[in-house]
Specification:
The complex is a heterodimer of chains A (145) and B (220). Chain A is built from five helices and six strands, in the order βαββαβαβαβα. By secondary structure, chain A is of the alpha/beta class. Chain A has a single domain, classed as NAD(P)-binding Rossmann-like Domain (Rossmann fold). Chain A has a six-stranded parallel β-sheet with strand order 3-2-1-4-5-6, with helices on both faces. The N and C termini of chain B lie far apart (53 Å). Chain B is of the alpha/beta class. In chain B, α2 links the parallel β2 and β3. Chain B is built from seven helices and ten strands. Classes of the chains: A alpha/beta (145), B alpha/beta (220).
């Protein structure tokens, strides 16, 4: 996926992933809006961060309207709660038709909730297992037999 | 019917009691172990301890092809996850949930929940209606607020006292459907019925005409 630099990215959840991703995209010149309901969460952003910080509830529809979600090109749902992430991603993709929606799930079963929609799931568990498979079995598929 | 009640505390307890009396087959899922023990011993029904917004908990609870799932947790997002799992993965026909944030009611319907109940919205609506006129004793709305039924007490100084219904001009789309009088149980009035002081009138109106009909009857 290639985004135009003028296009807007919304990140919900300013944890380790959200803050680093926001910083990276902002440094590369994208318009970034990061939302978190915890004011202290924004301390993870560097002084030089050039995007917008919005302290609000990311699942509140008014918050998402306030950050012009219908006009965004990309949204990343990476709060610490899988069900919140699922809800935010579905609002973005299914209600507002945001073209690129990413969601992080700790619980891989949550994939069932977004299956069939235009939402890309990210699963730290699968990525970690991938590392073990890669390093122990040279990337071969796990052999169950 | 086969019904799953997921999450919730007092609401769940009350609802389970009501549903169990009507001989529905129930499964209760709650993440609070002590509360599960309480529910199991009070209602004598199967209770599963676990987070109902997790796939494996729902799977272990055996909710496949149940008729109804009711999600009552205090987190809106959890309720949506429960309803969506039930519908998408377990073939449940009807999913119902409560929401804390009234703005989520329409949203959740759009995302596939059949019925969304917002107690905040209902209470606010009830209070707003109850405070419109002091003589409005009770009001209730049905059909998603398209119809409002109000109970109105007739004071001795109202100009309608002693008049027949056909001599009282009411706004369009409104009707006095029933009169409750102390001397008799209830009267379904016709044009010749006379209104007396102390009557309670059940007035059927739309939200737009409710104020007007109340003003017309309460004229002094």
């Amino acid at each position: 996926m290639k985004l135009d630099k003028r296009e807007r990215v919304i990140i919900v959840g300013c944890g380790r992933l959200g803050s680093r991703l926001a910083t990276m995209l902002s440094n590369k010149g994208y318009q970034v809006v990061i939302i978190d309901n915890e004011k202290n969460a924004f301390r993870k952003l560097p002084e030089s961060f050039g995007g917008f910080q919005v302290k609000a509830d990311g699942i509140d529809l008014d918050t998402l309207k306030y950050v012009d979600i219908d006009d965004a090109s990309m949204l990343v749902a990476c709060t610490g709660n899988d069900n919140l992430n699922s809800l935010i991603a579905q609002i973005a993709s299914r209600v507002y038709g945001v073209p690129n929606v990413y969601v992080r799930f700790e619980d891989t079963d949550k994939e069932l909730l977004i299956k069939g929609f235009n939402i890309q799931g990210i699963y730290p568990f699968k990525l970690t297992m991938g590392v073990f498979e890669e390093s122990l079995f040279d990337g071969e598929e796990e052999d169950e037999e | 019917m086969r019904i799953v009640v997921a999450g919730g505390r007092t609401q769940a307890d009350f609802l389970i009691g009501t549903l169990a009396k009507k001989k529905h087959k129930l499964i209760v899922i709650n993440d609070d172990q002590q509360y599960c023990e309480y529910l199991a011993s009070t209602h004598k029904i199967p209770v599963v301890n676990g987070d109902p917004s997790k796939y494996f908990v729902l799977k272990d609870a055996g909710i496949q092809d149940f008729d109804v799932v009711i999600a009552l947790t205090h987190r809106d997002a959890d309720n949506l996850a429960i309803c969506q799992y039930a519908k998408r993965c377990f073939g449940v026909k009807k999913v119902i949930c409560t929401v804390a944030n009234p703005k989520n009611a329409d949203l959740f319907k759009e995302l596939g929940v059949n019925t969304v109940i917002s107690s905040t919205h209902m209470v606010a609506q009830y209070i707003a209606q109850a405070t419109t006129v002091e003589n409005l004793i009770k009001t209730m709305s049905i059909e998603d607020e398209k119809v409002i039924i109000s109970e109105l007490l007739v004071e001795p100084n109202y100009s309608c006292v002693g008049k027949k219904l056909m001599d009282i001009t009411l706004p369009p789309n409104t009707i006095i459907g029933c009169i409750i009088r102390k001397s008799s149980d209830m009267i379904v009035p016709n044009g010749n019925t006379e209104i007396k002081s102390g009557d309670k009138l059940l007035v059927i109106a739309s939200p737009e005409t409710q104020d007007k009909v109340v003003a017309a009857i309460a004229k002094q």
